[in-house]
Structure formats: C-alpha cells, structure tokens
Amino acid sequence: MIFVISVAVGAGVLVGLSRQLNGRLALSTNAMESSFWNHIVGLVFVSIAALAIGGMFEGAPMEAPWWAYLGGPIGFLFIAAGSWAINRIGAAQTAMLIIAGQMISSVLLDAAMGVDGNLCARALGVTLILGGMWVTRAAKVKS
Amino acid sequence: MTDTPAPRFIHFLGAFAAGGLITLMLLTNGTLAQYGTLLFSSFVPHLTGTVLAIVILLILRPARAMPQRPPLWAYLGGVSGGLTVIASSAAMNSALALSGTIALGLAGQIMFSLVADARGLFGLPQRMPTLRDLAGLSLIIAGALVIIFFGGTP
Predict the structure, then answer these.
(1) Among the listed residues A33, A82, A34, A131, the one whose alpha carbon sits nearest the alpha carbon of residue B21
(2) Domain limits of chain A?
C-alpha cells in the first residue's frame, strides 16, 4: 500500500516538476514555444515507450467519437497557460488555481451531463474552493 | 533574480481557466482510452498538440524572451509529463482507485509547488507563500477533497 501511495503522490510531484521545467523554458523563450517542446519531447517519449511495450493500436480507437481526438489542441493551450502563469504568480498559486478550475469545471460538466452525485457535497466543495480563491486574491490586492 | 510583474486578475483567471482545460482533456483522452489503449490515448494528444504548436509557431513567430539559450534540462518537461501518465494509471488500477489517485496526486502537486516556490527550484523566482496563501490553499484542498470523496453517487 505504501508503494502505490508513493506512486500516486509521485504522479502529482511529476505534474509540478513538469510545470516548473516548462516555466523555466518559457522564461528564456515564450509560453507557446515551451508548450511545443513539451509536446514534441513527450511525443518522442511516448513513442519509445510504445515501441518497447508494443500493442499501441490494439482495441478499436478509430471507433471513438471525433471529439475524443481534440485533446492535443487543448493540451497545447493548457501547457502554454501553465508556463505563462507560473512565471507571474508562482508555482503554488498556479497549482491551486488550476486545481480550483479543474474541480469546479468537473462539477459543472457532471451536472451538464446529468451524472448522478451528491449535490450538497458538490455545492459545499465549490463554496470552499471559491472561498479559498477569494482569500488568496484578497491578499494580493492589498499588497 | 529577475523582477516579476505584480500578480493581476488576468493571471488568476488564466490559471483558473487552465484548470477547466484539464477537465476537457480528461473527457477527450479518457474517452479515447475507452476505445483504444492507454498508450494510444497519450500518443494522439501529444501528436496533434505538436502539429498545432508547429502551425501556431510558424504563423505567430513569437520572439524569445532572452538571447541566451535555456539550459538543456529545461526541455525535459515533456518526459515528466509522460511519466505522469504511467504513474497515475498504475495508481488508478490499485486499491486507491480514481478518487484516491486524484487526491494523493493533488497532495504531491501542492507539496512540490510550495517547496519549489520557497526554494526557487529550477531557476524560477523564489517566493515565500504567505499565511493567507496557505489559508486559501487549505480551503481549496478541503473543497477538492469534499468533491472527490463525497460528490459522487450518494
């Protein structure tokens, strides 16, 4: 159990590390070039993994709906936005705002798609997150 | 140490909107993984993202911020991103399930970013998180945990 917990925490550390490295690259270049390098280096990495493991095209990927193929353009924007933000508001605030945006949008998406869930818990969670954003933002306005 | 501009509303909005993009990516890449393999669902967005990046860079030709070349290790963000996919999918298939994986991943991300800010890791500006930052952070984490563990089917 300790091992899988470390793996899950490690996945989060890798997210932060990736944003820190892309942010450093954007400091010398720009956010869009940083996102380009993130994607092409990641593409090479995934391709090598695919060659080593094999079977990448198994299943029926061509039967997926067309919009499932749009993750790349969204990812390009996401990495560029993270590289841009981290150099302006720091790693911690970038991380917490991204988490806030992810949680609130996932609640909205679930609601839009009619996914069953505990509405009270979702409303409480969103309220806590908005409160947290307000606290942080209030600090920055004064300083 | 370079001067960084004071945080403004647009920076907060940008980072917050980026979080919304993750939700969309989970939807697209997760759907792709239902039809094909996990590797395929990581390969496709990297490929199409690279193609779009090339087109955008060729059209806009954005200038580099500094004449000096960035250190070579700064190009490795994509490797870290690729390893994230492997680590999180391994954790998801364990007893932690999706909710545990997401919650622990958030913890790892927050811990890393606090240390990174406090120490100015990898050449980014050093900044000490304020008490209000930590208070806001705690509220956001609490809200995220409530949604992850209690927001599902009642």
Answers:
(1) A82
(2) 2-142
